[in-house]
Design a protein that fits this description.
single chain, 0% strand, 81% helix, 12 helices, mainly alpha, membrane, SpoIIM-like, Membrane protein SpoIIM required for sporulation, elongated
């Protein structure tokens, strides 16, 4: 059977199962078990004939969700948040993992453009960062205080302002995806070019090491989250441009629901970045170097594991549970 016909034949049933999972349709335990068995048969068929298809990934994700609904003990409301971050989001990230790769590739490309532009055009940094900021930072560098700009204002006031600004930037990266992903790429271009020019600026003035000790304390969480938010925008755009066998509206609904959940997963990292920038970065050059490195590489290990490694772990574990149930 051709995959297109297989999807067309079963699409309404799968959408119905989604509504059951979301609680829009109520089913008794026997009916749920029947739906699950039926879905497992579809998954087995897809794994046999379309092993590398998105349909197989989708059915596996759907099976995992209904498996949790039937066979796991009922989660109390406060545990719903744990399930969201521990299982639901990682499975979605695994399903859309290629978009994360695309987002990182664009990020690297755009950041490189920022670096090259700063190298070949000495006025570029002033245009991108603003003359007042550049002049202030040059003075700070002369006084061996490359991160002096982060020492102004109160800690709590700076933290709140930074958090809201970063969430706003992330929301734009995501929501602009509604323009077929083009808006997301433009927003990512703007932020990445700025980052590239910003880092080259410190290199040009011999302060790259000191700036890195401060900037990347909060920058790991902030920039990584920015790339994941761009990933969400690309998912949203792709759901509109490439509906496949779904109607464009249904494809958009699914794309929005999935991408919004992934976007929400970045909020804790964005908040942590704001707290670190408001409270810790201002002390970066006074801290022992090993402490800077622990925070920077510890942050990278945490967020890198969650978005690159853990989704595969959850997928394999869930897939094993499903296969054990089939057997």
């Amino acid at each position: 059977m051709r995959e297109v016909y297989f999807i067309k034949q079963n699409k309404e049933k799968w959408l119905g199962i989604e509504q059951v999972i979301q609680g829009k349709i109520k089913k008794n335990p026997d009916d749920l078990s029947s739906l699950y068995i039926n879905l497992i048969n579809d998954l087995s068929f897809a794994q046999t004939y379309y092993p590398k298809s998105n349909t197989t990934v989708y059915l596996n994700h759907l099976s995992a969700q209904i498996f949790q609904k039937i066979y796991k003990t009922k989660r109390v409301e406060e545990n719903r948040l744990v399930y969201f971050f521990k299982t639901e989001v990682p499975l979605l990230i695994y399903q859309y993992r290629r978009y994360l790769m695309y987002a990182f590739l664009f990020f690297i490309l755009f950041t490189s453009i920022g670096v090259l532009s700063a190298i070949y055009d000495k006025d570029f940094v002033n245009i991108i960062l603003g003359e007042s900021y550049v002049n202030e930072t040059i003075e700070n560098i002369k006084h061996n205080n490359a991160v002096g700009v982060y020492q102004s204002g109160s800690t709590w006031g700076s933290t709140i302002g930074i958090i809201f600004n970063n969430i706003q930037v992330g929301a734009k990266l995501y929501i602009y995806g509604i323009a077929g992903g083009v808006g997301t790429l433009f927003a990512l271009l703007s932020n990445s070019v700025m980052l590239g020019a910003f880092q080259y600026f410190f290199y040009d003035y011999g302060a790259l090491k000191d700036s890195a000790r401060g900037i990347w304390l909060h920058g790991v969480f902030e920039i990584f989250a920015m790339v994941v938010e761009a990933m969400c925008g690309l998912i949203l755009g792709a759901s509109i441009l490439f509906p496949r066998t779904f109607s464009r509206f249904n494809s958009f609904k699914k794309g929005f629901k999935d991408s919004f959940k992934i976007f929400l997963s970045t909020i804790p990292f964005t908040i942590c970045a704001g707290i670190i920038e408001g409270y810790v970065t201002r002390h970066a050059l006074k801290m022992p170097l090993f402490l800077n490195l622990i925070i920077i590489f510890g942050s990278l290990a945490i967020i890198g594991f969650y978005y690159f490694v853990y989704p595969s772990v959850v997928y394999k574990k869930t897939n094993k549970q499903i296969n054990d149930t089939i057997l």
